[in-house]
Design a protein that fits this description.
The structure holds 2 protein chains of 2 kinds. Chain A is an alpha+beta fold. Chain A contains 2 helices and 4 strands. Chain A has one domain: Phosphoribosylformylglycinamidine synthase subunit PurS (Mth169, Chain: A, 2-Layer Sandwich). Helix content of chain A is 32%, strand content 30%. Chain B contains 5 helices and 11 strands, in the order βαββαβαββββαβββα. Classes of the chains: A alpha+beta, B alpha/beta.
């Protein structure tokens, strides 16, 4: 099955790229854009078909490598290929 | 006294670090990241550059290279380890130094000379300096903006871990003298025990006044003195491309 890890900078960490992108949207005339945060998405194919095993593996990957806990948070999503994207 | 200079695919300052060590009378050898032994080394330098192309986060992949578990043990045993630029980023990713290094606050890769005020001289990398001495060193990085949460910053202060700060010509502090936005103007940071230190600017690039500054020598001379080594009898190298 497929899983997804979304990594974002923690709230208290300044995200200058996000600020710059928000400013660019404002310059383009998009009104009403508030705070904007940039993040990273990792789509991971896993051998397992067990959602719990997949979640555990992705959690470990996020902690070990994909996110830096000093500056980043992460979310795990399991992607169900048959029923489209879902969050488990 | 032998210094091992650890390097990775994408490192590009390892030869300069070897050259700098030899210039002040230290023996030095390159240590490839896949080596399983660092036997015979009395100190280590983690070289600068762009290990693994800075993929994921700077230093994130390099921390898992085979040699790094030996580096961890070397640190725990109290031996001196200096991380320069990408080497600093790797030590932070490994957790040998606290905090993290974010994109520079101006979102620019900045290659320029910087001034660093030596705050502490009780370090294997600054013992040949005077307190308050200003070193002129070059920096060249995009992710050198030191960050730590409030709790960690308090610990860093309490444990006396700030070895150098960015400063102006007279040692004064201020945002205009801080080239990357680092918290508290931190330029060089050590671990609690004091044997592991990282900095973003490059002492190994500043060894000859003719090339801008020789202030980098102070740090390598400090390391030599800390290891009990003798000064080189011939202080001038054979040439910039000395055989390494």
């Amino acid at each position: 099955m497929r899983g997804q890890v979304v990594v974002r900078l923690r709230e208290e960490v300044l995200d200058p790229q996000g600020v710059t992108i928000a400013k660019a949207l404002d310059n383009l005339g998009y009104e009403g854009v508030g705070a904007l945060r940039q993040g990273k998405v990792f789509d991971v194919e896993l051998d397992t078909t067990d959602p719990e095993a997949a979640r555990t593996a992705l959690e470990k990957m996020a902690k070990d490598l994909l996110a830096n806990p000093v500056t980043e948070n992460y979310e795990i999503h399991l992607l169900d290929d048959d029923a489209g994207e879902g969050t488990a | 006294m032998r210094v091992g200079v650890v390097y990775y695919p994408g490192s590009n300052c390892e030869q300069d670090a070897v050259h700098a060590c030899r210039l002040v009378g230290l023996e030095a050898e390159l240590v490839w990241h896949k080596q399983e032994s660092i036997e015979g080394c009395d100190a280590l330098i983690i070289a600068g550059g762009f290990s693994y192309g800075d993929y994921l986060r700077c230093g994130a992949i390099a921390q898992f290279s085979p040699v790094m578990k030996h580096v961890e043990r070397f640190a725990a045993d109290g031996h001196p380890i200096l991380g320069i630029c990408n080497g600093f980023q790797i030590l932070v990713e490994m957790g040998l130094l606290p905090g993290a290094l974010l994109a520079n606050d101006g979102l620019k890769f900045r290659c320029q000379d910087t001034r660093l005020r030596v705050e502490r001289t009780n370090s294997p990398f600054t013992n040949a300096c005077n307190e308050g001495q200003i070193l002129r060193l070059n920096m060249a990085h995009y992710e050198g903006n030191y960050f730590a949460d409030a709790e960690t910053m308090a610990e860093i202060e309490a444990n006396d871990q700030i070895v150098m700060r960015f400063c102006g010509p007279d040692g004064e502090r201020g945002a205009e003298h801080n080239p990357n936005g680092s918290m508290d103007d931190i330029a060089a940071l050590r671990n609690e025990a004091g044997n592991v230190m990282g900095l973003m600017p490059h002492p190994e690039r500043m060894l000859n006044a003719e090339l801008g500054s020789a202030d980098g020598r102070f740090m390598f001379e400090s390391l030599r003195d800390a290891l009990g080594g003798e000064a080189a009898t011939d202080l001038e190298p054979a040439g910039i491309s000395a055989d390494v």
